[in-house]
Protein: Pyruvate oxidase
Amino acid sequence: MFDKTAGSYVTELLKEWKVNHIYGMPGDSINELMVELRKEESIRFIQVRHEETGALAAAALSKLTGNIGVCLSIAGPGAVHLLNGLYDAQKDKTPMLAIIGQVDSKLVGTDTFQELKMESLFEEVAVYNRSVQHAEQLPAMLNQAIRTAYAEKGPAVLIVSGDLFSTKIKHEKPLTSAIFSRPNIRASEEDLQDALKLLNAAKKPVILAGKGAKGAKAEVLALAEKLKAPLIASFPAKGIIPDDHPHNLGQLGKLGTDPAEQAMQETDLLILAGTAFPYRDYLPADVAAIQIDTDPKVIGKYYPVLLGLVSELAATATWLTARLTEKEDAFLLTYQQKRERWHDTLQQDMNTETHQLQPQQVIAEVQRILQEDAIVSLDVGSITLWAARYLQLNNQQLVVSAWLGTMGCGLPGAIAGKLAYPDKQVVALLGDGGFPMGMQDFVTAVKYDLPMILVVFNNQKLQLIEHEQQEMGNKSTQVDLANIDFAAFAHACGGEGYTAKNRDELRQALTKAKGSRKPVIIDVFVEDSTPPS
Structure:
């Protein structure tokens, strides 16, 4: 009995996987699936204006929630546009699914209109990359794609000829189920005892915590407090490790702080907690190190660790904390004093009144209206460096393209954040170089009534690129930008827009934006200041 289409099974299985948003743009090779999605009330299709926005939003949704983000596109050009978001998910190790239409099955291989060799296109980026040959395969392959995305923490690609979605199939006895069982990974007793010996012997331990600390914040903080160890957070862990915690020295590296860099060079034991921190130049030249991670492939990948603990971070931190000998706090106290002086300097920078707005002053004003549980979406560029140094996050969530570092990620992250957490404040910090790469999708935020505050740091320049060119000893080239009236653009799209050229105007604009029920762009003119380094 053939009574249901393969496309209807897709929507049923997506519901079983608790997918409630799909980002995409309809078109010929997915129109039959759109028929099924139109019938489905519990899955909301978010029509974007560019497929790259959809893919970046799906990746951001996954980073924020831990659930799989899903995007949808047609064959050919739509599929190509997804690549940036798929690579973002791959590099930041977050589960994502792209369902991609292909030309009709009878035309595959004939080099027809918009046909591409899809599997070749996605071979390097996807953890699962398969083309459905027969409609009957679709339910089982969809389950396997999602399961693999969760297991491998990356993007899965499922390629389906448009006519297969409308093919009626018999699916009385499912071959697979929509379920993923997460492994409970624990280190061996022997390795834990070895780690305990190293920790008890250390006089100046330092913890470098990464995004693997998400879900283990309390345990990592308890370990640091028992060890009397300074904490340093990798940039993706900003906000996971609260900036106001007295052990937290801030970030490390180009985005980092002086106390963090100094503590890293003085430590006699480095604990890499849920991070495979890749910037070797910022780590100690030669010191004993312990690395805790669920992925054995990253143990010792970027630093020659003495001991690797393949384990969930929370479980290992709890075990070690319970058995550690209480430490002396002289090393910690030294760096807490340095931390206090560093924060005083930052506060002075933010409080200083200047004729033209400085980026750090803008961040200080944003901080005033930032709610305790806000979602902060950060774009890539000089704004990343300013935010890393001056923005203080504690219970807020940060979403950013951390490893790929793609400009234009800020608006998709804000859209995903508001859809995932409709009752929370969403604020995006954007550069005037990154935002225009996908600013057309501001109308997506307007269309779906997604109140958010987009703060554009406008210096009419690709400031970070200019800085990089000058650091290389070169004359800056092609970094000046044609000015855009972002406030007028916001109004043209149906949102609200404000222009701020001084601190009073910025405060007024932020106050209005905080109370608005529409998406808001604040066009903030800032001085062309060299980013912190």
Notes: The first strand starts at residue 4 and ends at 5. Residues 48 and 444 are 6 Å apart (CA to CA). DSSP finds 20 helices and 19 strands in the chain.
